[in-house]
Amino acid sequence: QVVQSGGELVQAGGSLRLSCAVSGFTFDDAIIGWFRQVPGAAREGVSCISTRDGSTYSVDSVKGRFIISSDVAKNTVYLQMDSLKPEDTADYYCASKPILDLGIEVGERMMSAPLYDYWGQGTQVIVSS
């Protein structure tokens, strides 16, 4: 199960932190990704983290502004979003992919939504100009 929280309306330049609480599988052996989607567009990968080794990857459009992190004790992954821009407005989704013996690692390849097994319910982020 993947449960999200934290979306809301914020002004440009502001900050938000999204949370993603996961359960039902081994939290410290997964790739957790954040995606976003606007109406009429495909779901876009934003950032991902390996809860096995803490490695992270973010797409260029959010580098330096968004930080993904995990708290193993709380089985939760966070997306800290700073310097928000109106173009960051979207529905944000958290997703998980157990690593097991698949040998998968964070990187551009893991920014593909179909690779993930479990999805959160989505949370809306609106950045006003």
Structural class: mainly beta
What does the largest sheet look like? Answer: 7 strands, mixed
The radius of gyration is: 14 Å
Q: Count all strands and give the number.
A: 11
Taking pLDDT < 50 over at least 5 consecutive residues as the criterion, the unreliable ranges are: none
What distance separates the N and C termini?
35 Å
Indicate the percent of residues in helices: under 10%
- The coarse silhouette is globular
Number of helices: 0
Can you give the mean pLDDT? Answer: 94
What is the oligomeric state here?
single chain
Could you outline the blueprint of secondary structure elements for this entry?
Elements: E1 2-5, E2 9-11, E3 16-22, E4 30-37, E5 44-50, E6 56-58, E7 66-71, E8 76-81, E9 90-98, E10 118-119, E11 123-128
Parallel strand pairs: 2-11
Antiparallel strand pairs: 1-3, 3-8, 4-5, 4-9, 5-6, 7-8, 9-10, 9-11
How would you sum up this structure, described in words?
By secondary structure, this protein is mainly beta. Helices cover 0% and strands 47% of the residues. The chain has strands at residues 2-5, 9-11, 16-22, 30-37, 44-50, 56-58, 66-71, 76-81, 90-98, 118-119, 123-128. Strands 2, 4, 5, 6, 9, 10 and 11 form a seven-stranded mixed beta sheet that branches. The radius of gyration is 14 Å and the shape is globular.
Please name the defining characteristics of this protein.
single chain, 129 residues, mainly beta, 7-stranded mixed β-sheet, 11 strands, globular
